[in-house]
Amino acid sequence: MNAEVLDNKTQVSIIIPTYNESQNIVKILRTISKYVPKNISTEAIVVDDNSPDGTGKIVEEYLKDFKKVAGYTINIIHRKAKDGLSSAILNGIQNAKGETIVVMDSDFSHPPQIIPKMIEAFKQYQCDLVVASRYIREGKIEGWTTKRKLMSKIAIMIAKRGLGVKIKDPMSGFFAFKKNIISGLNFDALGYKFLLEILVKTNGINIKEIPYTFENRQFGSSKLDNSIILDYVKSVWKLYKSKNSSITNEKRGSVHFISKAARFFTVGASGFIVNYVISMLFTSGLTELWYLHANIFGIIASISTNFILNKIWTFEDRDFSRKKTFSQFGKFGLFSSLGALIQLGMVFWLVDSHNVAYPFALISAIGTAAFSNFILNKKLTFKEKLGG
Ligand code: GDD
Ligand code: MN
Predict the structure, then answer these.
(1) CA of 60 to the centre of ligand 1 (A)
(2) Residues of the chain predicted below pLDDT 50
(3) Residue 285: left (phi > 0), alpha (psi -120 to 50), or beta?
(4) Closest residue to atom 30 of ligand 1, CA basis
(5) What is the CB-side half-sphere exposure of residue 312 using CA atoms within 13 A?
(6) To pair with 388 at 20 to 30 A between CA atoms, which of 48, 139, 228, 302?
């Protein structure tokens, strides 16, 4: 026996929403129990919406005789009324004990044999989300009408174009993920497209698609009707707005730009003070360095404090991983030196060949250098869009 099973901690939770699935539910639960990995403690959670055909009662009956297989349990959540597939999935997740969540339909369109492959994929590909996909090589659909196929394609196109979703089958209802990737997220859970919400609302997760064949159900009927198509449109619109809330409004974009530039110049001014104080300190008191050497320390100190303040305050970047921070610091230093060169060159050019008075030349040169510095750091060091 496996130690992980003995300590009884559930590792995988399989969420199975049902609405009028009396002809499928027992069979699918039996089949799933054959395929759950034996060394991984697993629970199945049926989420039933008070199905008029008695699906919920059938499950209760089945559970009375269900002999617990080592490491495998089945639970059921009874909801009062039909409240949609996505919301059923969300309810299941909220009650799940496992770290890994698998979501699947109960009508055999999602073959249970794929479950162990999905769980294996987490380790194999070091990913956080595994999507069983009909639209990659070796994946397919059987038994769908041309109309339904076309609808699926259009829905996918909308998700890709409108929401910038990258994977091939964002409409899949068959997927698995590490629960921690959704912690702190709020879900609209409208209609059918739970996966799409995960795709849009998480950042930088690793996704792997594995192929499967979707077979249209043999028993019962699909619950996808026009209201669900409408929910899809609503849900895409909501996601689109939440995704672009900071840039839809151009005014807001320019406010951001100006406030960031103001912070950048404030930091620059603070750097001037640091530079001055450190340079003075090192020429007097304990160290008594030669003033040019002391000035080098002043410059290094002010570049460092400028960098830290700009990273945290101006550009609100809280990622302090070592590699990233060092490379940003390198760029920042480079642009600071570049700024100095621009400033020197411009002062010289204005005073010498255009007879501009030195104070004016200095002010425009400092302004130009500071502004180009801001743009370069915004775009290249902190990888922001220019306008926002
Ligand atoms: N609890 C609950 N409440 N379950 C529901 C509800 C609901 O309101 N609506 C549907 N379900 C359950 C069904 O009983 C079934 O187990 C599963 O959700 C999928 O419903 P179907 O009606 O069979 O969906 P479909 O076959 O048309 O579409 C499926 O496949 C598509 C392609 O992978 C869904 O999984 C889609 O999300 C998916 O895009
Ligand atoms: Mn179905």
Answers:
(1) 21
(2) 1-7, 246-248, 250
(3) left
(4) 173
(5) 7
(6) 302
